[in-house]
Design goal:
Elements (H helix, E strand, L loop, with lengths): L14 H14 L8 E2 L1 H8 L3 H14 L2 E4 L3 E4 L5 H25 L2 H17 L5 H20 L2 H8 L3 H9 L6 H15 L3 H23 L1
Antiparallel strand pairs: 1-3, 2-3
Helix pairs in contact: 1-3, 2-3, 4-6, 4-9, 4-10, 5-6, 5-9, 6-7, 9-10
Length: 221
């Protein structure tokens, strides 16, 4: 954890949230590798805070499935997904997301359509930049959540969010860069929803999920 930044004395607002965000990104990009010990006391010293915000951040990361708490041993980061676990997650995505994209095209409000298109603009600016990974990994989470929100089905959105699918798949995908094809696929989804084209949105989302699975399965091959 030597590469983790220190927040210093100037950052005291929402400190627990800031620590959580730093640790989450460090786990996502491999700064803290899979199956590594996470020492709460060391983190408290590094961030110059009491143990309380560290415990809060670790509890949130445990809820995300990014760390596990072991009795008498403390926290460790979780292993990467196995191939079978990855396939299971993508089967869930194929059940939920294409139909949800179609519903979003039917139910979206004008402001939601503009929000989706603005999200694509943000991602396209970041593609190719040396520090794009952090921006684009969060873009991926937001884009898919915005589609669920535009479909106006909170039951499906919250059920999907509990899988933390994007956190786990991005850990597998990390190579220091981001696949530009993914942003193009996101753009096709957003444009179909903005155009109120249910069939186009469903097809674009299905294509995106299937191609995402193909890209990640190459990690195992």
């Amino acid at each position: 954890m030597d590469q983790l930044p220190s927040l210093g004395s100037s950052a005291r607002v929402m400190l627990g949230d800031e620590i959580y965000a730093v640790l989450q990104q460090a786990i996502m990009d491999g700064t803290i590798p899979p199956d590594a010990r996470v020492n709460a006391g060391e983190l408290a010293r590094r961030f110059d805070v009491s143990p309380t915000p560290i415990r809060e951040a670790l509890a949130r990361l445990e809820s995300d499935g990014l760390v596990e708490k072991h009795p008498l041993k403390g926290y460790r980061t979780t292993d990467l997904l196995a191939r079978e676990e990855l396939v299971d997650l993508f089967e869930l995505r194929l059940l939920l997301e294409p139909g949800t994209a179609a519903r979003a095209a039917q139910r979206r409000r004008p402001a939601e359509a503009q929000d989706l298109l603005a999200e694509i603009d943000l991602a396209q600016v970041a593609v190719g930049q040396s520090d794009a990974y952090a921006t684009l990994s969060q873009h991926d989470v937001r884009l898919h959540d915005k589609v669920f929100r535009a479909a106006h089905n909170d039951t499906v959105r919250l059920a999907y969010a509990r899988t933390h699918c994007h956190l786990h798949t991005f850990r597998l995908a990390y190579t220091g860069s981001y696949v530009a094809d993914t942003v193009a696929e996101h753009a096709a989804i957003a444009e179909a929803i903005a155009a109120s084209d249910p069939a186009g949105a469903e097809s674009a989302m299905r294509t995106h999920v299937e191609r995402s699975m193909e890209r990640l399965l190459r990690v195992f091959d």
